């Protein structure tokens, strides 16, 4: 199992607002917080979001460039994916591949892809 993943974000407040809307519903609990970062943990795995240092902000992030493309999390069921999709819509977050949702990943793959801050892709997948 993954130990942890750490992601730099251009705006920690915005990132925190986004991830706080989903990670607790996906079973992650707030783990650590400090002025420049926050982390969420489930079991032995945690995810850390850290404010990018000023000097590195201009370089930006692009999910199609080399590096992390997206993060995917387990949902409990298809209904769980649907509920979180609804929550994303209510909050004005963009659903990616809307025309193929919830089968953008294939006919047997039930998931939602949401655009997270920095235009990172955030995926929530139902069990098969
Ligand atoms: Zn994926």
Commentary on this structure:
The protein has a single domain (about 5-50, about 70-125), classed as 2,3-Dihydroxybiphenyl 1,2-Dioxygenase, domain 1 (Roll), CATH 3.10.180. A hairpin with a 2-residue loop joins strand 3 (about 35-40) and strand 4. The radius of gyration is 15 Å and the shape is globular. About 20% of the residues lie in helices and about 35% in strands. With about 130 residues, it is of the alpha/beta class. The strands form 2 sheets. Strands 1-4-3-2 form a 4-stranded mixed β-sheet. The protein has 2 helices and 7 strands. The structure holds zinc ion.
CATH architecture: Roll
CATH class categorisation: Alpha Beta
- The Rg value, from CA coordinates, equals 15 Å
Sequence of strands across the biggest β-sheet: 1-4-3-2
Any idea of the CATH topology?
2,3-Dihydroxybiphenyl 1,2-Dioxygenase, domain 1
Number of strands: 7
> What average pLDDT do the residues reach?
97
Strand % is 25-35%
Task: Kindly state the percentage of residues in helix.
Answer: 10-25%
Uncertain segments: none
What best-fitting shape do the alpha-carbon axes yield?
A: globular
Bound molecules: zinc ion
The CA-CA distance between the termini, in Å, is 19 Å
Number of domains: 1
Protein name: Glyoxalase-like domain protein
Keywords: Metal-binding
GO molecular function: metal ion binding
InterPro entries: Fosfomycin_Res_Enzymes (IPR051332), Glyas_Bleomycin-R_OHBP_Dase (IPR029068), Glyas_Fos-R_dOase_dom (IPR004360), VOC_core (IPR037523)
